[in-house]
Amino acid sequence: MKTTATLSALIGLASLTSAHYTFDKLLVNDVKQGGDNTYIRKHTRGYMPTKGTEILAKDFTCNTNAQAAPQVMTVKPGDKIGFQQAFGANGIEHPGPTQVYMTLAKNGDSKKEDGSGDWFKVAQSLICKAGNAESLRNDAWCSWKENNVNFVMPESVPDGEYLVRAEHIALHGAHAGAAEFYYACAQIKVQGSKATAAPGPTTKIPGVYAVKDKAINFSLWGSSTSYPEIPGIPVIAGGEMRGSADGKSGDKRVAAAGASGSSSAPATNNNAAAAPAAPSGGNAAPAPSNNGGNKGFGGNTSAAAAAGAPASSCKARRVKRSQS
Ligand SMILES: [Cu+2]
């Protein structure tokens, strides 16, 4: 029995550890392109997440000490792009949404781009399986057990070279102010688009999230069966919305209506359950921060302690995985 218990403990540890990850392999239409970090910028954070006030630091753009990758991948609208996990990880096992942001390379060269310009959001995934409070802590999320963050390049993105930043936010510690951010940037050239207008709304990264944003201080440890939040800014018109706030629509990818006609309102869409689309009535001028609008402050944090939520951070940091 002792052996069994020890084994179970080890297995538990292993699976927690594999839940930590970053992304280094690019997929186009589910086929791996090149090797590790051929198109995705290598950084020095390893598989550890970014947390707390670190999201305000410059390194939040493409992760710690990110270096230009050797190649730029050319894709066309309609191609499915995936950011696959690094270090042998094979599945996201933290609960939370995924986001994909893009910024146009200012000099037309994504290898040289520093990401200091404006970013727009091309994709958002939420909940793909309607369930209960328990499933909201694991397999309700669209990204659960998938080994890559993926989206279909929308027609509404004009031709050009871009930095594309894919992100997963793990919410298990969010009630205690410790949402975990996993992200990396790829260098991608879009070719064959008919779009001409620059997509909006836009934001800066860092700056897309404030530490107190409701979406990243949400508690999974109460009775909630949905996640009625959209982290950051709304998805551009024609961009991809996968799943929904309560998962009742299933694992569906639909084109976001976007904020068309209402310019670049940076307000957070807190009505995701109603429609995977535009923020209601946003007419604000483009602004680099998203602190306006209906953004609240830590609305769900207090319920956590009452529900006996676990400590915020992951414990399994000891098991090492080679980064070489
Ligand atoms: Cu973790």
Automatic annotation (TrEMBL):
Keywords: Carbohydrate metabolism, Cellulose degradation, Disulfide bond, Polysaccharide degradation, Secreted, Signal. Residues 315-324 have a biased composition (Basic residues). It catalyses: [(1->4)-beta-D-glucosyl]n+m + reduced acceptor + O2 = 4-dehydro-beta-D-glucosyl-[(1->4)-beta-D-glucosyl]n-1 + [(1->4)-beta-D-glucosyl]m + acceptor + H2O. InterPro entries: AA9, AA9_LPMO. Residues 20-227 form the Auxiliary Activity family 9 catalytic domain. Residues 241-324 are annotated as: Disordered. It is found in: Secreted. Pfam families: AA9 (PF03443). Residues 255-292, 300-314 have a biased composition (Low complexity). Residues 243-254 have a biased composition (Basic and acidic residues). Residues 1-19 form the signal peptide. It is an enzyme of class 1 (oxidoreductase). The keyword Secreted applies. Its cofactor is Cu(2+). Its EC number is 1.14.99.56. PANTHER family: ENDO-BETA-1,4-GLUCANASE D, PUTATIVE (AFU_ORTHOLOGUE AFUA_1G12560)-RELATED. Belongs to the polysaccharide monooxygenase AA9 family. This is lytic cellulose monooxygenase (C4-dehydrogenating).
